[in-house]
Design goal:
- The protein has a domain at 24-129: Sandwich (Immunoglobulin-like), CATH 2.60.40.
- The strands form four sheets. Strands 1, 13, 14, 16 and 18 form a five-stranded antiparallel beta sheet that branches. It has a five-stranded mixed beta sheet with strand order 5-11-10-7-8, with no helix packed on it. Strands 2, 12, 15 and 17 form a four-stranded antiparallel beta sheet that branches.
- With 253 residues, the protein is mainly beta.
- The N and C termini lie far apart (98 Å).
- It is built from one helix and 18 strands.
């Protein structure tokens, strides 16, 4: 049974050097499969893996990254890995510092024992988005270290991600999760945190749901109020001017 924790939310639309948990993208072609995230945060570092069934003596793998705006991305040149005899093979990628779409192309060349070659081309698309940092402070009041604590984050009742952490005995720990949210529309968001351990508690010992606000959800009403106020001023000025002219004496020649 999961325990409901409070969330201390820090809304940060900034870059990060950490990998982001996101929906996985899987491409397959014959004995080759390529797996990695389909959405990542700006400036994050993530991995794509290339797996090949053991039907080749060895194989080589090449990755090429492309996109309209790759500012801050790495690598920007093809990456070659040769004479691979076992897998999977991993490629590390750093996302750009701007929101964009990255296209990854993988070419695998398999070599049979008789010297024959087989070529496989696979592509993946990765969406690079801004993110929001979610942070929950948890406490372990026991005299035992607790491992593999699953901290789950929800926004407006919808699961957005989780993080596995270890916490030492009689200590508190700040757990952060970088939610690939994109630029959040103005509004109020309700965030809750769950853990899979009944011993773990909030740092302050309370249990509640925390709400945060992105932008100003009432900005439209503010604009309407300002316009209405200006309209009233114009109307009052016009009426006052009208009656002032009406009361002005008429001189006869």
């Amino acid at each position: 049974m999961r325990t409901l924790l409070a969330l201390i939310l820090v809304a940060m639309i900034v870059g990060s050097a950490f990998a982001i948990n996101a929906d996985a993208s899987v491409s397959t072609s014959g004995p080759v499969s390529v797996t990695g995230p389909s959405a990542v945060a700006i400036n994050s570092t993530f991995n794509y893996s290339v797996s090949v069934q053991q039907i080749f003596k060895n194989y080589s793998a090449t990755m090429i990254v492309s996109g309209n705006n790759l500012t801050g991305a790495s690598p920007i040149s093809p990456v070659y890995k040769n004479n691979i005899t076992s897998g999977p093979t991993y490629f590390s990628i750093t996302a750009p510092s701007v929101q964009t779409t990255m296209f990854l192309m993988f070419q695998v060349t398999g070599y049979m024992t008789n010297g024959a070659k087989f070529y496989y081309n696979l592509t993946s698309m990765v969406t690079v988005k801004q993110f929001t940092v979610l942070s929950a402070s948890i406490k372990n009041p026991s005299q035992f270290a607790l491992n593999s604590i699953n901290v789950t984050f929800e926004v407006n009742g919808k699961y957005v991600g989780s993080k596995i952490v270890n916490i030492s005995k009689n200590s508190t720990q700040n757990v952060t999760y970088q939610w690939v949210s994109g630029l959040l529309p103005a509004g109020v968001y309700t965030v809750t945190v769950h853990v899979n351990n009944t011993i773990v508690a909030l740092k302050n010992g309370n249990s509640y749901t925390f709400q945060i606000q992105s932008g100003n959800p009432y900005i439209v009403y503010i604009y309407i109020g300002v316009i209405a106020f200006l309209a009233i001023i114009v109307a009052v000025t016009f009426i006052a001017s009208y009656y002032a002219r009406k009361r002005r004496p008429k001189w006869k020649k």
